[in-house]
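Hey team,

Filing this mostly as a record. A colleague (T.K.) asked me to run one chain through the structure pipeline before their review meeting, and I want the input and output archived in the tracker in case anyone asks later how it was produced. No errors, nothing strange. Just documentation.

Input sequence:
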Amino acid sequence: MLQPLFYLQVILALFTLALVVTWIRIGRPAGDEDRGWPRPAHLGVGFVTNFFDTLGIGSFAPTTAMYRLFKLVPDERIPGTLNVGHALATILQAFIYTRLIEVEFRTLATLIAASVIGAWLGAGIVAQWPRRRIQIGMGAALLVAALLFTLTNLGVVAGGGEAIGLTGSKLALAAAGNFGLGALMTLGIGLYGPSLIMISLLGMDPRVAFPIMMGSCAFLMVVAGIRFLKAGAYRQRPALGLAIGGLPAVLIAAFIVKSLSLTTIRWLVVVVVLYTAVTMLRSAARRA
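Output structure:
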């Protein structure tokens, strides 16, 4: 008899096909004159960020920092480019981690569904925002991301328990949290840090954050990505760079490297993300 996880992965495969078909059909958005295949810088950002994302660092905050540092994507197109471009690598992570780490299926499916609904609503709003509002929203989101990295490094995050599933009020609370995190993903704040804290505080094994986070992000990024694609709120070449550079990075990190000491890297990310948040908020202030 086929397991429920198999059907979930079949649905994810269909979601992936829908994203790819939509992306091919729409192609380069109107007003994007940056033609051709991704440049080495685009591919490098995709490889580096997805490599460390697979190991638990997260990809949205570092990618945003690199985009601003190297002036690869306008601020108002960063959220859409992140959700469209990182989707395929995140889907691959979801297929890997939902098989490698056991989590109770009802908990996994409930949290994924909640995050997808949040992302659908969030993407529809963010895709229509003007540049200044995007800068303010992303600047605030990056400050939150820096705080979460700091809490993780300082060991403030609770140790968690041994449970691999939730029931009753705890499951409802986790679903509400994932709904909010799904909406925030469309603004560029990653789901891993908040998800790890929430799961730990609810008494679950912190390791199940990986399949929950990867599964949630995979589904919600397809849903959000399609909305950003239809709205033309992304940049084609950088998004392709994330997708093409990210897929081999995921395989190398998951099956060859498997684990690294990431504390030093997280502190570096904190510094870079804080700098990016401040510069983005200053840009928004100058437009006031």
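Quick notes for T.K.: The longest helix spans residues 263-286. The CA atoms of residues 106 and 165 lie 8 Å apart.
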